[in-house]
Sequence to fold (302 residues):
Amino acid sequence: MTNKVILTAAITGAVHIPSMSPYLPITPEQIIDEAVAANRAGAAVVHLHTRDPQTGRPTGDPEMMRQVVDGIRRRCDVVIGCTTGGAIGMTNEERLAALPIARPELASCNAGSVNFCFSPIADKINQPKFDWEIPFVRSTYEIPFSNTFKDIEEYITLMNQYGTKPEFEVYEAGMISNIAYFMAKGILKPPVYIQFVIGVMGGIPATLNNLNFLVRTADEVIGRCNYIWSCAGTGRQEFDIGTAGIILGGNVRVGLEDNLYIAKGQLAKSNAEPIAKMVRIARELGREVASPAEAREQLGLE
Fold:
């Protein structure tokens, strides 16, 4: 509990669609502005996806990611983490394309396959802004989020090649064993960085007992000194899970990728709002938040 809390802002993601909120950042300029504002509010890390600036559809265009990353780096010193999850239905080539170009300090590395479903969104949208939105969210009812052992090894190897630290996205307890396998194989050096993403439809539910269970399982399987962890609760559980994560001594991810609301029935107008809320919660609980430099030191980043 002596370390400061590393707050990550997940800026736009690839789940929410533009019809759900007018505040969801879409263009490179909007994503850059949101990342900078989140950093100023207290985020030490930003987790980045990109979208087609005309339609808001998630894209794996590496040049667009480079534009976003370069724009953020020019304006602040936040730790940059890029997605390799991309969006449901993307190929491995699309998901990895930006890594050698953007050269982020962190990159998400999904630790196993899961039924990552968000098709119920379609039932809540009467008049979509864009034609792609409803077919896209409905497709997740039948398309799994595939991350085989071969895929994971390929991702880790490429990240090692470019000096990028994997941030393992864990949606189920069994994925902790997958990480331990690659540690035993020798291609991962401790401490590994784990992001417990809970509350996804198809993954472990976002409950306090489940978060505690995941931490205890990682303690037993990987060893407490061999990993650093953060947590992200999706949807309305975001701030409950984040608060529990702080109490348990972990780090926290919030942002419009995970939850479009700042309070019940109230849309967040920016990623700075949930970050500022978690800063207040952390301080009320007696913990300060880490700066980007302190986050780099804790995570062992170059």
The mean pLDDT is 96.
